[in-house]
């Protein structure tokens, strides 16, 4: 997929989610929170499937692990981040639907783990450049 | 994942450090929201939103500095375009944050303030962010014919 197609895909899913969220928050629809989050489930499902297929391709017999190892580690982190995001959204929906009586702090733990990981990854991308300069 | 860091920088128009800053602000903001909901119910929503406002302010400052440097190095067109783009996105983000904060802080007085209106700032910034992408898509389709 080209960059334009990927951006368009992300934009469409975000827009549909925003519209559904606004309709629910303004009380125009009485749908379940799990249904409101449907664009998020579909988008995350597509991403996880794509990542799993790419990772499975690297695990084929005959593939040189010395070349693929760092890339596989990065993909494993991406997969973990996606699962953490999915966990956060699921527990948030359960809390909003009052299926589970959990504190928001516990709901947010997967989100904070994911954000901390993303910050570390971004920081590693920023600071080597600074040292070279 | 779906985008590399370079593609993300190209799409959003923010530098890597600015992305780091906004992500850090989001982390602190989510922690404050959790604290506000679970422990300190009396904490003002304006205080909870401070990390997001601070990130917007710092991002504006960095963009201005970078644009001035670009202008001094005779990259005038790039400097103006970058400044205009980032300021537009940041101002729409700020409008959305201020309206959301007002809605949460003054729930009785802000009943006419719909969530649709609050999110419209984001909805406006999205198509703008994709104008270049849509143009390139149209270009590709045009080439096919």
UniProtKB/TrEMBL annotation, chain A:
Residues spanning the membrane: 7-25, 31-53, 74-92, 104-127
InterPro entries: TM_Fragile-X-F-assoc (IPR019396)
Coiled-coil annotated residue ranges, if any: none
Signal peptide stretch: none
Keyword list, A-Z: Membrane, Transmembrane, Transmembrane helix
UniProt-recorded name of the protein: Transmembrane protein 60
Source species: Fundulus heteroclitus (Killifish)
TrEMBL record, chain B:
Residue ranges of the TM segments: 12-33, 45-68, 80-100
Cellular component annotations (GO), alphabetically ordered: endoplasmic reticulum
GO biological process terms held by the UniProt record: intracellular calcium ion homeostasis
Pfam families membership: Tmemb_185A
CDD domains the UniProt entry points to: TMEM203 (cd22816)
Keywords: Membrane, Transmembrane, Transmembrane helix
The protein, known as: Transmembrane protein 203
Taxonomic source organism: Fundulus heteroclitus
InterPro entries for the chain: TM_Fragile-X-F-assoc (IPR019396)
Source organism superkingdom: Eukaryota
């Amino acid at each position: 997929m080209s960059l334009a197609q990927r951006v368009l895909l992300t934009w469409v899913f975000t827009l549909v989610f925003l519209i559904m969220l606004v309709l629910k928050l303004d009380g125009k629809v009485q749908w379940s929170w799990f249904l409101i989050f449907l664009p998020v489930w579909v988008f995350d499902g597509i991403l996880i499937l794509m990542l799993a297929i790419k990772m499975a391709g690297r695990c084929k017999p005959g593939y040189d692990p010395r070349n693929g190892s760092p890339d596989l580690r990065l993909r494993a982190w991406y997969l973990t981040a996606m699962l953490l995001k999915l966990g956060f959204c699921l527990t948030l929906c359960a809390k909003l639907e009052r299926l589970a009586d959990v504190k928001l702090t516990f709901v947010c733990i997967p989100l904070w783990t994911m954000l901390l990981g993303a910050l570390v990854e971004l920081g590693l991308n920023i600071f080597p450049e600074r040292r070279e300069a | 994942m779906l985008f590399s860091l370079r593609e993300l920088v190209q799409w959003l128009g923010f530098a890597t450090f600015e992305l780091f800053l906004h992500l850090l602000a989001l982390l602190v903001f989510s922690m404050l929201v959790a604290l506000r909901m679970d422990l300190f119910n009396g904490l003002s929503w304006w205080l909870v939103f401070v990390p997001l406002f601070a990130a917007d302010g710092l991002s504006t400052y960095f963009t201005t500095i970078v644009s001035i440097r670009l202008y001094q190095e005779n990259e005038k067109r790039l400097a103006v375009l970058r400044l205009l783009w980032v300021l537009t996105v940041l101002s729409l983000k700020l409008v959305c944050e201020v309206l959301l904060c007002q809605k949460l802080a003054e729930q009785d007085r802000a009943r006419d303030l719909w969530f649709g209106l609050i999110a419209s700032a984001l909805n406006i910034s999205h198509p703008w962010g994709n104008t270049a992408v849509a143009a390139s898509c149209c270009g590709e389709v045009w080439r096919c014919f």
